[in-house]
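Lab notebook: predicted structure, single chain.

Context: the supervisor wants predicted structures on file for every construct in the current expression panel, including those that have not yet been purified. This is the next one on the list. No modifications to the sequence; it matches the entry in the shared construct table.
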Amino acid sequence: AQPAVAAAALRAAVEAFEAALAALDQSAPTVERAALLHDLGGALVAWLHAPGDSAPPDPSQALARAIGALVGAAEIQQAQNDSAGLASTFLALGDAYLCVTSADARTRAAECYRRAALYAHATDDRPSFARAQFNLAGVILDGAAQPPAEALQEAAGALRLAGRVYTAAAYPAQHRAVQRNLRIARAKLKGVRP
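Prediction complete. Output recorded below exactly as produced.
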């Protein structure tokens, strides 16, 4: 019952954000519009990740709406040099592209996480920086049975950067995940090195 309850809450959130956007006066501050677009996109992505029957009835339409909302938010944030907002929006966009099982979508997700990491670093947002680096490494490691050496080196570097934030004391679960993925990256690197 829990996933169904969570999905119902996400659906209600999506509808509330859409209603708020529709009611927004054209002269309303763009900051408010960007925040609503970001929240709508994030709620749609979370709903898309809901298990089984709890997911949206038309996933492709929900995904298109999520990406459209997040791109819209990013365009406003870029015009306003809102690095903090951009870090969060590109993290959500990366998560959105991971709802699609294609090489092109994974490439786009990786690029979103790279950009999220840059914006998070610029604002010293350490948790977002670590999540972006960790997710980037995950996209690379999961993308192919044997990624090229250059990609594996990027993944290992991203995990080391994430590990500086995800310490065993502060983030035990994330710390273990970083160490596990580092072992995978190193093992795969041995496979591509002559």
